[in-house]
Structure formats: structure tokens, C-alpha cells
Amino acid sequence: MLNFIRYKITNKKLLNCSLLVGVIMLAGFLCVYPMFREGSLNRLIQTMFVEQAKETREYPCAIYYTGSVSNDRFESVDKICEEMDGIEKKWAKGLTCPKLNSQRILYVKTGNADTTFGSKSRVVSIGTIPNLYDYADLLYGVKAEDAANSTNDMVKEALAGGAYPCVISQSVMDRYGLVVGETLSFKFKMYSGADTASFIVTGIVEEKEDDNYFWHNRLEDYKDLLILPYDVYDDVVRKNEINETFYDLAVMYDYTYINSVNAISYRGFLKWLNNEDKAVKNNFSNILGSYLIQEKSISLILFAFELPIVALMLLFLYMISSRILEMETTEIAMLKSRGVSRIKIIGVYVLQSSIIALIGCLIGLPVGYAMCKMAASTNAFLSFSIKDVSIYEPVVSMILFVILAFVLAVLFMTLPVIGLSKLTITERKGLRISSSGTPLWQKYFFDIALLIVSGYLLYNYYKQKDAMAVQIISGGAVDPVIFLDSSLFILACGLLFLRLTGYLVRLIYHIGKKKWKPAGYVAFLQIIRNAKRQGFITVFLVMTIAMGVFNANLARTVNENVEKRTNYNIGTDYVIQERWILTTIKLQSGEFTWKYKEPDYERFKLSQDYGIESLTKVMIDESTDIKVGDKLEVGNMLMAISTKEFGETAVLEGNVNDEHWFNYLNALGRTPKGVLISSNLAKKYDLHEGDSIHYLRYSPLDPKKADLDTSAVICGIVDAFPGYESTVYETQSDGSIEPRERYLIVANLQTVINNRRITPYQVWMRLSQDADTEKIEEALRANKIDIKSVSDRSKTIQNQRDSSMIQITNGMFSIGFIISLLICAAGFLIYWILTIKEREMLYGIYRAMGMSMGEIVTMLVTEQIFSSLLAALSGFAVGGISTLLFTKLISIVYLPRRHNLPIEIFIKAQDSIKMIIIIGAAFAVCFYIISRILKNMNITSALKMGED
Amino acid sequence: MSEYMIETKNIHKSFPIGNKETLEVLKGIDIVVPKGKLTILKGRSGSGKTTLLNILSMLDDATEGTFLIDDEDVSKMDSSLKEKFRRYNIGFVFQSVALVPIMTAYENVDFGLKLAEYEGDKDERIKEVLGIVGLGGRMSHMPSQLSGGERQRVAIARAVAHKPKIIFADEPTGALDTAAGIAVMKLFRELIDREGITIVMTTHDPNLMSLGDVVYNMEDGMCQDATIVESNN
Is B86 on the interface with A (CB under 8 A)? Predict the structure, then answer.
């Protein structure tokens, strides 16, 4: 039997090779699912950790605990450290990822201390940080451990007087105005006979830049801490019989070891820890929680992206297999007529399919690996870049998917034989007659039914799109049916177009029936009578092109809108917020007031080499209230700008407002006390240019106390403004997220400063194309700029492109498109080459009857125009319609926030051109092969074929 | 005007068989085909009858020699003129039946008429010829719905519909059973009688010889003298 199968395979090399390629593609593409899923999920987790670190400016994978030891339990500081060791061990049992560091801060809360300078009373606490100098630098003075060597007379004197040496942080220094050499004295016990302890400040410390993940709690969090050497602290606690000592323990774990496999168990462990002791806290349980929700979404979306392409590939296998079987129908019928059982016939084909599928699956596995790496390296639709894709690694479950590919391949390759194996040679004749009828899907209006279903789903999604957006913003799962619906619509619409083009061809044929030249006559009849047979390749062509157009447009729309919104939200290329020092001043009245010290702005002005084209100060206050009449709108945005520099630095498209935004800036520049307001505010209160409004700002010391009420005249109303989002999403008391309309006021910076005092501003920079933001940041740090936050436009866009959802979309759409285009081209070629070979005798007859070669070519071209070309055009049309109907809706999955810039559909001609080139190449190759066949065709030999 | 539809002079045909050697299939054929008669080329397989028929019907070129069809020297025509000549003046009936499978019986005949740019009433002519071949009631049937004999009759209707000067039939009964074969031959006779058409056919079936007007016996690439079948003349 094996020999028979080998003969059968080698006898139809081209077709069996096509089957093999189809199986390789199927196995490869199915393998992409588990590998890409794992990689994307791991990337998602890592991105979430990185994002949280940026947002909170603390290491995002820490478990922390504040413990206390009462006096009756206290033995020594060493014992407390042992207790902390025990806690760490317990945590390590549930978290297998390596510990990066652990922070231990031991302290005692004390009371008011008198200082040697100024005699101001201060609340202080004392404590110790083991191995402090591994993680902190001495800024000034000497370490408390080295106090004996101090050259400072005050230190020497205080030590001689029995004071304990200590160091303080910069924030304590700033807050209390303490200096090295200052002594603080207080009593641990509040009765009059208690001893007074004195502490001499020997030095000032600050955290090291390279802190080895130590500073979970920052020094600035301990606003009144005097840091003693370890043994001195132990001595002080022992001697003074302090009621209760405290310790803060924080263990930092390496989050790069947290992945899609262990995330769920870690989340469970963290919950268990917290249930056991509420004081045990962590800062990554929320990350794992929202990851687990998104994990489901990603798996489902990936599945939704794979399904249509897998369906296309199975269709391809079925089509090729059917062609092989068509050629073997006589053999099968002959075997059947000679008494070979149906099971045996099917068995032969199952074995033959299994051999091909096995080879295909073995090759498909590494091909899938390469496809996944390729998908991971996409930057946009069909745009591949060299980047680190090491997070995408092979996974064991790929084997399962290969097995699935094997089963599916065997099933779809054998499926056509099941029907044929029933027929004897006489029954076959009847089948041949019926094969020229109407395709089943046309007969039973399958296309219309599908269109109704997909249209209904689309209608429902449009109705629910706002709720869906909020659900996604809240971290909820994305409904994958939204993606499947688009595929369903494409299939339905594609079939409908085929039905309509079929009618069109019939109409054209009937209109000119009497007048058609022989070439046209034959061509039209070929299309009409071969509709059922050609159905596969035309459906294939329509589906591939339509899906390609739609996917290209969707990916393009998502990428471009993400970029546009990022550009808008950041407002320019590079935004820096420096850390400003806020000082409080006690007024004679006893009240406190505040003052920000403006850092030197000149330090931002780097040399031209850094590519900074322009820069400007932009002061943003996001908690400004707006008063219109007696109505108050709270929590809005105030932007204070210098109009000229802002116009030169910020970026905004010219068509997003009624007028070019420069006109609004000019109006503001001409009116020092004027403001621009957002159109949503104007609409709500029916405000117009020339009307007055008030805005209120709050004290940085007390966010409930408004300390400025300014009146301003409206000199412009804008829909969009760089950096302003009109909708913010706020978490409600029940944990749900609700959108809130936010209003904008843009004022002149100088007026805002004059009206009040200066408050921290951002520095916005417009950069040249070749500017390197890393170098700029380095230079700014070298200029002693204490950077609090940075927004880098190009990095943000890149990060968004690398985000799991966008990466999956770009990757899967690109790979899916390439595969579908390849199999479409291959299917097209195979179909036509076989068809032409089959018709060789017919062409011989036509030639014998006097048809010229030119007429035969005309016949073929006419046939191609009204079948393949019409199908291809239908594909483009269906892709276009689907783009119009689905793109904006599906984009919500990626860009769920309501935005000043509505989602705009982006269609790039180059995507369609790429497709046209590939399809055109397939057409060209096909015609080349056809012309070779025709050229080599000998009329008398062709006629002989019929006799054989 | 000659009484012969075809006159050949010293037709030779050789095929290359490798090593610069050739196989001579026709070795100087000199025959005449009378107008309005059924001429049969008989002979065993490999005798050269199909090769001669292909040359006479201008599907193939002779290596040497000339021939006239209706007094016109067609052997020197270029390929496009030959195509045109075939189109308007020749009808074909092949052993393989060779109907266009996607066309009904009616459309097959219509296609032949379109090719020959038939100027009369096509519909009337199609119905007429299909009526002659006895398939007036099965005009809308596809070839796959017809028997072998019926298909061959449709092929004959198609060959004759545009009123060509001559019909070439290569083993037209080769794929048919005896009864169907005899029916086809009778049809040829009827067409000659009704349409005055000239038919040249090949066969190796000795039973059919008596139905021809002139029979040439071919052997080893040579053609022996014609046998005139008296009963048909």
C-alpha cells in the first residue's frame, strides 16, 4: 500500500507539494498562537511593572510590613532583625522569584526636641538603618560612626557632653533647617525627673543614585528621623526602656521572573498573606490582578485573529485536496466498482494525508517559531524592525498545537474523499452533471443569512460602545466576538459580492449574447457554468484581499491614532518637570504661607548640538476650579503659557479647531488678562468671547483652601489644545470608573505669576529629527537639574507600539496577511495551471476549428477579467466597506478613552499597492505559465489527448 | 473548375526521432478527393492515415509536396491564412467527440457558427442541423447528459452547420459501438445527399468501407489506388 501511496504522491508532485506547503503554513501559524501568547503576556506583565514604576516612582515589586516590639518583648535590635529574617523566609516560600534587596528601618517615635539653634521645638524620632552607607552617600559632615574623628568643635563638644551622634537626611535638614553640629535634646519619658537624651547631627546623607533597589521607603518619607549607628540605637533603646520600637521591612523581588505561568499563583499567595495579616502589604497585587483580566482578553483576541486565517488555510487544503481527488475520481470509482470497501479507500487517503501532514507539521514547528519572531518584530502593519524579541520563546504547548494542525490537516485533506468513495463509476456520471450547478451557499442564501447576523452584531456593538470603552478602561476583558464579527461580515459581504458579480456577468452575457465574438462567448460560458468549481478560488481571492485591506486599514488606523493622540497628549517632543522645593513660612499672624523657589531656567538651554529647537515654560494646574456666575466647576485644568514660545514649541494640527490654533495664541498674547477656554465649557454655560469667568487655585499646603480667585476675559474658545484632554476617567467610591468632562483655561504665564506666586512649571522642548533624548536627559542632569518626571514623545509612541495589544495586532495582521496572500497566490496559480492543463484538448479543438492564438488569449483575458479581476475588485470593495463599518468601532479596544481628537480612519495607498503588486505578480506568473503552455501546444497532440 | 475538392502532389511527412534521424511517415501521396463524395482513408494503425488527414485539414504541415483544396494551393499559406481557411471552409469531427463540455448541444453548434461568422439565421440553422442529426429534442442538453453516439452527432451537426466545403473526420466511429458507428456513417451519407458536402474520413473498420464513395487504402506511408464503391456512385 505504501508503494501505491508513494506512486500517487509522486505522480501529482505539484499538488502534493502545495498540500505540504499548506500544512507547513497551518502548523506554523497554529504554533504562533501559544508562543506569541506567552511572549505577549510576559511582555504585558513586564510593561505593567515598568509603567507602575514610572507612575509611582518606586520599585513595583515589593512586599512590606510595619512591625512593632513592645518593651516587655524587647531583647536587642539583633533580635528584631532575626524576627525580620523569619518574616522574609515566610514570604520567600510563596514567591520563588529572587530577592533583589530588603530594606530594614528601625525606629522609635519620640516627642518634641529642643535644638541648640533657635530653640525651636521639633518633633523627632530616632532610628537606625543597617548598612546605610551601602545605599546612601554622605553629603556633608561625617558619618555618625566616625563622629569621634570630626573636626567640628560643636560635634566634639556635644560628644564630650554625652550626646549620641546621628546623621539626618536632606529633607529633614530642609524641613527643620537643621545644620551639622546642631544638638537636639529631649526626654523619652514625660515625667519631670526623666533623663534628657541629646543627639548631635554629624552629617547629612542622601540616597545613592544606584541604590540596588533598596529605597522602597525613601528618606524623605521619614520626615523627622535622626539616623543613629546600629549599636548606638541598640544602646539608646536598651537604656531608655522605650515602650515600643518599630521596624519597617520591605523586600524587593525581581519582577522579571514573574510571568504568565506563575502570575496566578503569586496573586493567590499575596491574597493569602494579606488575609493572614492585614499589615502585610504589597505594591504589585493590583498589577497581577489587572494582568489576569487582560490575560483573558489577549488570549481571546489572539484566537479571534488566528481563526479566520486558519479557516482560509483549511479551505486551501480542502481546495487542493478536492482538485487531486477530482483527477482520481475515475480510479476511486473503479476501485469501488471492483469491490474495494469504502473504508479501505478512505484508509488509503487517510494514510496519504497523514504522511503529508506529518512531514508538514515537523517542518511547521520551526517555521512557526520563525513566524512568531517575525510577528514580534513588527513595528506597524507589514513594517518589520530589528528589536529585542527574546521574550518570545518556544513553549511546550506548541506541540499540542502541532498535533491539532496534524488532525485538522488530515481531516480537511480526507474530507472530499468521503463523498466520492460512495460512488461507483456509473454514479459518478450523475455527480459530474450536478457539479456544474449553483454553489450551495448561493442556493440557500447563506451569504444573506451571515450578513444579517453580522449586521445585527455590529448594530449591537455600536449601541454598547460607550459601556464597552469604560469596561476596557476599567481593565475589563475585551469581547473577542467584535473581531470575529468583522471576519464574519467580510465572509458574508464577500459571498454577497460574488453572488452579485455572478449576476452581473450573466447580465452582460445575456445582453450581448447574439453579438459576442467566439472568444467572449466561450469566456462568459466558462465563468457562468464553472461558478461552482471556480467558487473556491474566487471566495479565496475575495476573502484574502478583503481581510488584507481591512486588517491593513485597522492596523494603520490604530497605529496612526495612537501616535496622533500621544503627540496631542504630550503636546510637544519632550517635556520635563523638575523637582521644586516648597518652603513654608510662618507669618507674624501665626499662619503659615508657602513659597516655591524657582530653579535656574537657564540650565535647560543646552547647546545647539543637542537638537533643541525651542523650549518654553508651561505651568499646569490640574486642580483649578472655574466659576461661571455662581456655578462652580471643580478639578479642571489651568495652563499658563508664554504664547510666542508656546507656539514655537508645542505641536497641534491646524484643522482640529475652528481656526488655526496660532490665531487663538495671538488673541491670548494681545490680552494679558484674557483666557482661552475649552469649547465644552463654553457650550455648557453658553459662554462667548468677551464674557468673564473666574478661576480659583488652591494652596499647595492645603488643597481645600483656595488662595486665589482671578477674574479673566474669554478671548478664544478651543476644541483642542496641546496637552489637554477633555475627558478624564475617575474611580468612584464603589470602584467603578466613570468619565468626567474636564474644562480648560489657558492663561498668560506672566499674568498667572503676577496674580499669585510662581508654582512649578514644566519645560516643553521641540526637538530636531535627529535629537537624542537620552543625551539631553544626561546633559540636563549634568546641569544639576533634579528631574521629577519626563515625557518623551517618541519613546512613548514606541512603548505603545510595543504594548501587547498593539504588538499582537500588528504582528498577527502582518503574518496573517502574508500567509493568506501567499496561499491565495499559490491557490490561484495551482487552480489556473490545472485548469489550463485540463483545457488543453479544448484549446486544440478551438485552434483546429480556426480560432487564432490571439483569440484564445482574448478568451482567457476576458475570463480572468470577469472572474479573478472582478473577485479581486470585490475583495477591495468588501475590505473598504468593512473598514468604514468596523474600524472606528474596533479601534475603541485600543483607544477606549474619549478624546478631543476623534478616531480617524487612516487608509494608506501603499498597503493596497503592496497587495496589488503581490496579486499582480501571481496573475503575471500565471499568465506566463499559461502562455508557455499555449505556445508549446501542438494542435494535433492536444487533440490526441481526448483519444487517450 | 476541377471536379475534385482536394488534389495532392507528392506529399511527404517526416518526424525527427533523435540523433538527427527522421521517421518518414508519408512517402509521396498523390490522391484526389471528389467533390460531394465520402472519401475514406483506411489502413492499420501507423499507416499514416491520420497524419495525411491532419495535413489535408491544415492542422499540420507536409515536409514536402503540395495540395489544392477547391483549386486553391493551400499548402503554401501562412498560419493565419490557414486558420481563416479552416474557420470558414472546413468542418471537423474527431474521434474524441470534442464537444465543449460547458456548452449545451445548441450552444456547441452556435459556437461553430460564430467562429465561421455564419451570416444566415443562426437559430434556424442550429435547429435544422440538430434536427438532421436527430437531436432536435435534446438541444438544451449538456454533453455529459448525452450518450457517446449522441455527442458525436452533435459534433457532426457543429461541423456541418456553417456549410463548409469539406468535413474531415478522424476515426469518427472509433469510440462508438457498431450500431452507433453505422448510424454516424448513415448520417454522413444523408448530409452528402442533403447538403452536397464533401467528407474525408479515416477509419480502420473494414465494415464501414462499403459506405464510402471512394476508398484509399494506406499502407506504410503509401497510398494505393482508389477503390470506387459502385453501389454509392
Answer: yes
